[in-house]
Amino acid sequence: MHVLVPIAFILIIASMVSALYFMMHDRGKTQRMVWSLAPRVGLSITLFFSILVANWIGWIHPTGIPFGR
Length: 69
What we know:
The chain crosses the membrane at residues 6-25, 37-59. InterPro entries: DUF2909. Keywords: Membrane, Transmembrane, Transmembrane helix. The protein is mostly helical. It has one domain (8-57). Helix content is 71%, strand content 0%. Helix 1 runs antiparallel to helix 2.
């Protein structure tokens, strides 16, 4: 999990940068921005469920942020 999360974040940011590039250069004439944001959505959902499963299996543990302080 220590390797998976940073790699996923880097890929998500790369997808957002490519979408920004296409948004600035295409000016809404093509669908390249939409297609470059689609992997970001998939990666984000996969990362979220991977963290949930890793917590359920016991690979990671919550730190226990105290409430009410």
